[in-house]
């Protein structure tokens, strides 16, 4: 079900599952009540005590799970902590990825050489991180060669999928921090992103979509799915 706030994937007395749109932060910054996902959720529910169980980056689209009650939030967050939640993402990357499937097993930590404080990188003394991928489609456009990947992170490090795919030479299309000169990211944050930079990125937001979420909770299997936005699908089919 779609509304002006977001697409609702599932809702019951305890859970709200939404398909987060691109270019929307999860938590409030300076802005109006439409400027973050959690503020939109509070508008929808008419309550302030809503718990966001998982989060997505500003430009990443897809499934976000929210709990309406404290106990449900506590139980669900525990599932994330112990790694018993299966997550599947769709990613459009540059180039034709060679193997049909594989696992990227590289530790991640802070990028001390970067001007961007939040940027991480592969580093030998970082935290263990594993990302599985399967090639769903290889295709070509006038801009070059691309691949559509199904990606499953085994661990939940910050920016994990984006860093790992960039590390193997196939950054996500539209990624301003890990796919291009990081000045694209700084330009976005500082409000000086030029038309030329935007054209070079090919897409308005990076092409990463959290499409499936599966877990066992309270005696049953829960599975949620959400489709990517039209611009994502169109890039693969044109």
3D structure, described in words:
Helix content is 21%, strand content 33%. It is of the alpha+beta class and 238 residues long. It has 2 domains: 1-82 and 214-238, Pseudouridine synthase, CATH 3.30.2350.10; 86-206, Pseudouridine synthase. The strands form 2 sheets. Strands 1, 2, 3, 4, 5, 6, 9, 10, 11 and 12 form a 10-stranded mixed sheet that branches. Strands 7-8 form a two-stranded antiparallel ribbon. The radius of gyration is 18 Å and the shape is globular.
Summarize the structure.
With 238 residues, this protein is an alpha+beta fold. It is built from six helices and twelve strands. The protein folds into two domains: 1-82 and 214-238, Pseudouridine synthase (2-Layer Sandwich); 86-206, Pseudouridine synthase (2-Layer Sandwich).
Helix content: 10-25%
Mean pLDDT comes to 93
- How many structural units, i.e. domains? 2
Q: How many individual β-strands?
A: 12
How does the major sheet shape up?
A: 10 strands, mixed
The CATH architecture category of the largest domain equals 2-Layer Sandwich
Poorly predicted residue ranges: none
Helices and strands: which structural class?
alpha+beta
Shape: globular
- How many helical elements? 6
Q: Class of the largest domain in CATH?
A: Alpha Beta
Report how far the terminal alpha carbons are from each other. 27 Å
Rg (CA only): 18 Å
CATH superfamily of the largest domain: Pseudouridine synthase
What is the helix/strand order? EEHEEHEEEEEEHHHEEH
CATH fold-level assignment of the largest domain: Pseudouridine synthase
Strand content: 25-35%
């Amino acid at each position: 079900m779609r509304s002006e706030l977001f697409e609702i994937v599932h809702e019951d007395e305890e859970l709200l599952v939404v398909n987060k749109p691109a270019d929307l932060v999860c938590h409030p910054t300076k802005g109006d009540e439409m400027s973050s996902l959690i503020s939109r959720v509070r508008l929808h529910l008419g309550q302030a005590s809503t718990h966001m169980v998982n989060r997505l980056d500003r430009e990443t689209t897809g499934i976000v799970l929210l709990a309406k009650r404290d106990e449900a939030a506590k139980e669900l967050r525990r599932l994330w902590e112990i790694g018993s939640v299966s997550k599947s993402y769709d990613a459009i990357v540059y180039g034709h990825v060679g193997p049909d499937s594989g696992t990227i097993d590289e530790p991640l930590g802070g990028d001390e050489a970067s001007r961007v404080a939040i940027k991480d990188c592969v580093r030998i003394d970082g935290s263990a991180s594993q990302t599985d991928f399967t090639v769903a489609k290889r295709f070509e456009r006038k801009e070059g060669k691309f691949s559509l990947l199904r990606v499953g992170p085994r661990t939940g490090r910050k920016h994990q999928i984006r860093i790992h795919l960039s590390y193997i030479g196939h950054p996500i299309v539209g990624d301003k921090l890990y796919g291009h000169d990081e000045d694209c990211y700084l330009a976005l944050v500082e409000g000086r992103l030029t038309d030329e930079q935007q054209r070079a990125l090919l897409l308005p937001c990076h092409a990463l979509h959290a499409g499936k979420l599966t877990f066992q909770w309270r005696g049953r299997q829960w599975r949620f799915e959400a489709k990517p936005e039209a611009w994502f699908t169109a890039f693969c089919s044109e």
